[in-house]
Amino acid sequence: MTSGSQSQHDRGEHALAAERTVFVLGAGFTRAFFPAAPLVVDDYQAAELAERVRHLQYASRILDWERSRETGGRINIERLMTRLDGGMPYDYDQGASTELATLLSELKKAFVKRIEDTRTQGEHKDDLVAFADYCVNSRVTCITTNYDDLLDEALYEVSDVSNIRGVPDKPYWHPDGGYGFFCRPSYSTVQDTDVFMDVSVSMHLLKLHGSINWRPRRGSQQPHTVDAVMHHEPWFRAEGGYEVTDRDVVHLHLDPEPFIVPPVLLKSAILEQPILRLVWHLAYRALFQASRVAFIGYSLPMTDIAVNHLFFEALNLLPRSTIDVVNLASDKADRNRIRESYEYVFGQIPAKQFSFDGALEWSRKLVAGGHVMPS
Fold first, then answer.
1. Kind of pairing, strands 229-231 and 354-355?
2. Integer Cα distance of 281 and 42 in angstroms
3. At what angle do helices 274-288 and 305-314 cross, to 10 degrees?
4. What is the pLDDT of residues 291-304, one digit of tens each?
5. What is the DSSP code string of 76-126?
6. Which backbone phi and psi does 269 adopt, to 5 degrees?
7. Is the dihedral of CA 315, 316, 322, 324 positive or negative?
8. Strand 323-326 to 292-296 pairing
9. Which residues contact 330 (CB under 8 A, 6 or more apart)?
10. I want to staple 215 with a disulfide (CB 3.0 to 4.6 A). Which of 89, 134, 185, 232 is the partner?
11. Eight-state DSSP code of residue 188
């Protein structure tokens, strides 16, 4: 057996051992590789946003209140999106639904712009690609509450799959089927193509709250059917001999806003979206069948009630000694806060299962073989 064949054999053996490992990723994960990436509480061009909606009296007041709750006038984007998307009973009496929808739209635009600006500032992009390579070749299911598509791009870059119509001879990830549902490429809105759901991907990236590169077809009604949402991003290479020559034409066939559902006040808002019902089903199944789960850069916020139910119920039978928590915490108070938030959901977790050096250092050790993820 040649050294190359031996390496491929070792990877295959490693993949079988890690097949039931699940990584749960939060905002701290993205920030570890892209330090400029936004956190849940961040600026999001708050001052400019406030000026743009100043003429909307009710929405403007809610934005001002949100900024007053954080230092420097920053925004807790999930809390604010939850407030705007879920609404409150008295909003309707105030006739403010349109104002709140406008502010939510502007907030999403500010978030997408932050991600696009971040894309060119990846100080540790090679490390992210190495982590993605590990996930693809080890067939590790990734579940994320993040909306960005930075990991998606890295997973796609792991294997240059120029023709997905045949089954590649190596593990790979592709957005047509890698999200767990048939997510067509956006160029198929303007061209008849032989595009099929790519069921041979080696792992899934399950995005519990949607993604900035998921775009509904223009005119599709809420709640969106599974076939109404497509993937649309600058890093995807059109396949099958079709080249996108005019992206403006494609844009005209897509909803201007991405498919994003924040951690809303009511779980019914998630239940009514067929895509999220499917994705959450796959996430529950992956967690329930997992032999080991690592939470990486995820703060486990108590406000995300639906996600907490998912983790508690799906992992109820998993031994706590097989739950790893990876976060960045420099002082004792932060470490205690992280331990308390996890133990509130899962009960007692052995102290050795917590790693506070951050996602970047942990992933480097993982890729180098310093972390053993047993089945």
1. unpaired
2. 31
3. 30
4. 999 999 998 877 77
5. EHHHHHHHHHH--HHHHHTT-HHHHHHHHHHHHHHHHHHHHHHHTT-TTHH
6. -65, -30
7. positive
8. parallel
9. 356
10. 232
11. G
Distance of alpha carbon 19 from alpha carbon 38, whole angstroms: 31
Local structure of 292: helix, strand or coil: strand
Of 363, 369, 371, the closest CA to residue 130 belongs to: 363
Phi, psi of 143 (to 5 degrees): -115, 130
DSSP 8-state assignment for residue 232: -
Residue among 181, 201, 190 nearest 238 (CA)? 190
Structure tokens at 352: 């050795």
Instruction: Residue 34: name the closest of 168, 131, 141, 136 by CA.
Output: 131
Hunting for tokens 């069921």 — which residue is that? 199
Quick: pLDDT tens for 210-259: 999 999 999 998 889 999 999 999 888 876 545 555 667 888 899 988 99
DSSP one-letter code for 172 = -
Q: CB–CB of 21/140 below 8 Å?
A: yes
| CA atoms of 195 and 209, how far apart (whole Å) | 25
In this structure, the number of other CB atoms found within 10 A of the CB of residue 248 comes to 6
Q: How far apart are CA 256 and CA 217, in angstroms?
A: 9
Q: Are 208 and 144 in contact (CB under 8 A)?
A: yes
Alpha carbon distance 105, 120 (integer Å): 24
Cα angle 338-373-9, degrees, rounded to a multiple of 5: 155
Residues contacting 41, CB < 8 A, separation 6+: 70, 74, 75, 76, 77
Rounded to whole angstroms, how far apart are CA atoms 329 and 333? Answer: 8
The model's pLDDT over 72-84, given as tens digits with 9 standing for 90+, comes to 889 988 888 888 8
142 touches 25 (CB < 8 A): yes
Query: Tokens in use for 200?
Result: 């041979």
186: nearest Cα among 95, 139, 253, 128: 253
Positive or negative CA dihedral for 26, 29, 32, 36?
negative
Q: How confident is the model at residue 375 (pLDDT cuts 50, 70, 90)?
A: very low
Q: Is residue 56 within 8 Å of 102, Cβ to Cβ?
A: yes
CB count within 10 Å of CB 351 equals: 8
